[in-house]
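User: Hey, my collaborator sent me this sequence without any context and asked if I could get a structure. I don't really work with proteins. Can you help?
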Amino acid sequence: MRSYAGAMTGSLLFATVCCFPVPLAYVVACVAWTEGEDWAWIPLLAALVGSGLVLILASSLTRRGFPRITRADRVEDGGFSYGEETFVMWAPQSPKGHPQARLVRADVLEASLARYDPESGTGVTSYPGDYTPAEFTPLVALRLRVYGAEEAGAEVPAGSFEITGSWRVPSVCLSAVTAGRLAVLVAPAGPSGPAGPPPHGKVTPLWPSSTLLAGTRTCRVAGLDGGLSEATRRPGRLLRQMRISRSVGGVELTGDTIDLRRLDARTAARYTAVAERDRSFPEEPAPVTEPGEESRWIVDRLPGERAAFGSVSRRWSRRGGVLVRGRFLKMRSTHSFQDHGPVLDTVLRVHPADGTPPFEAARRLTVPMTYLAVLHRTREVVLYADPAGSSYVVDWPRTNLLAGTTAAAVITPEGRELSLAGRPDVIWSLMNLLASHGLSVPAPVLDLRKRRMSPVAGAAMELTRVGQDAAGPS
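Assistant: No problem. I've predicted the 3D structure and written it out in structure-token form, which is a compact way to encode the shape of the chain:
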């Protein structure tokens, strides 16, 4: 667990080396002062000004590389209230596609990471004007079932077909692949060739729309009377709304809400008809993840911090540092990237450990691809708070374990392995138990046979058994 003081020390050394004339100015000033020169104050003044610049540069580098979240990052009232389940994502736009293309659903049957090999090292790379540079956009091989009908059912509708290909998937949209539901454009079939007419035209995935169809992004519709209706994870309704939006050149959202009172009368009437249909024939929410997730699981090959119960600084633990939970409310793409994930403008809701009301904070963070690939499951995040409770830092190994990027397990003192898959509350309780005792477990498996685990073995087994009883028989 890195400390802010350590990160600041490293940044100061780096900034001092970059601004090497500053210490030289101090030496010149000292020599001139010793010799009694009248102009000694000039290099001294330059050195003092340079020292201030070094501090500013070091502070900026530390804040960028060690993104603490403080109450100074609080989000002021921006006119939009985030609900308990709200998640807003602003992702790069997809190609417009053929004007006569059909917007339909496609299920991901298989997925594999074809290529991701950035050459930038560990630093931040920016591409002004480009949200999806090829170097930082994974190439994913997909086998899709594209539906000819509006909705997928138990039987494959007539006109459906399968296609295999490789597509660049923006990192923020990787969860649509894991969830297994995409929105795609199917262009009209081309002219007939010697072998006859082609079965279908070009297939173009719409990645931001796919995150909506997958349930990563939430969606609500405010009617003309102001009443809200829920559209999240209702693929049929979402597709009908997407077609309306595409036909009118796009519809502006307020957060995750389409407000019909802000649309022209004709477009509002079309959205109202979709809502009325859903009210008359309610659509059951789609599953969080479509069946067959194991054939789409590319998380293990993506870069990012490996999931773990986490490391603990004994000094932090002795002084009363605690873990707290938060939740992402918003993510917005930027033009900056690191090799293990994009740099995103985020809004989080942090729940302080002292019981004070949660607060929302805006912070630019590098979010690992491993976490982005399961964003449809959870937007929860683990943070470690300083003993004073004045700042918070995202703990990505613990966050990834809680999100399920790797299966967590406990090995009992007798050597039996107990899976914690699908039991985030038990994992969270074990993380807190270990942190409170200053015990580091930089792995997803908690082995209670180790001698250093003896002080917490009994409590850990009790937490695991309680979790098993609550979950029921496996």
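In plain terms: The CA atoms of residues 11 and 60 lie 9 Å apart. You can pass these tokens on to your collaborator as they are.
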